[in-house]
Amino acid sequence: MKALILVGGYGTRLRPLTLSVPKPLVDFCNKAMILHQIEALAAAGVTEVVLAVNYQPEKMRSFLNEKEKQLGIKITTSKEDEPLDTAGPIKLAEPHLNDGEPFFVLNSDVSCAYPFEEMIAFQKKTGASGVLLATPVEDPSKFGVSCR
């Protein structure tokens, strides 16, 4: 199974931390944010992670080269030459993901107790085209969502 992690943002809200390092490499609970995700994906049986990267791709690749070996997971990149919002990087990464199997898509700046195994089981049981993990909040407008 594969996963795509969207890591193309500039991390402007975390400046000055992100002036020298991409946001996914900023430490959260004593390790880079992206490692929390990759470790959870590996534990769920994901064998390949594709990074949709735009900002400082060489730093992402350099950092993850050694982690790839340690975690026993293949990590490849799909480079955006210009920011493509959310759907654009998914389309751009299609050649890496187009094997007819389901795959995960994650934002690099979200960290939680991912129920990946349950999501896989639900998708297999229902044959759903997609399974979305969401968290209910009182005021979604704080997250750029408008509910009318």
Task: Describe the structure in your own words.
This protein has helices at residues 33-43, 57-71, 87-92, 94-97, 116-126; strands spanning 2-7, 27-28, 31-32, 48-53, 74-79, 103-107. The strands form 2 sheets. Strands 5-4-1-6 form a 4-stranded parallel β-sheet. The chain is built from 5 helices and 6 strands, in the order βββαβαβααβα. The chain is α/β, with parallel strands linked by helices and 148 residues long. The chain has one domain (2-113): Spore Coat Polysaccharide Biosynthesis Protein SpsA, Chain A. Strand 4 (48-53), helix 2 (57-71) and strand 5 form a beta-alpha-beta unit.
In short:
By secondary structure, this protein is α/β, with parallel strands linked by helices. The protein contains five helices and six strands, in the order E-E-E-H-E-H-E-H-H-E-H.
Strand order of the largest sheet: 5-4-1-6
Number of strands: 6
Order of helices and strands: EEEHEHEHHEH
Number of helices: 5
CATH superfamily grouping: Spore Coat Polysaccharide Biosynthesis Protein SpsA, Chain A
Q: What fold name goes in the CATH topology slot? A: Spore Coat Polysaccharide Biosynthesis Protein SpsA, Chain A
β-strand percent reads: 15-25%
**First and last CA, distance:** 37 Å
What's the overall average pLDDT, rounded?
Answer: 82
Helicity level, as a percent range? 25-40%
- Low-confidence parts, pLDDT < 50 over ≥5 residues? none
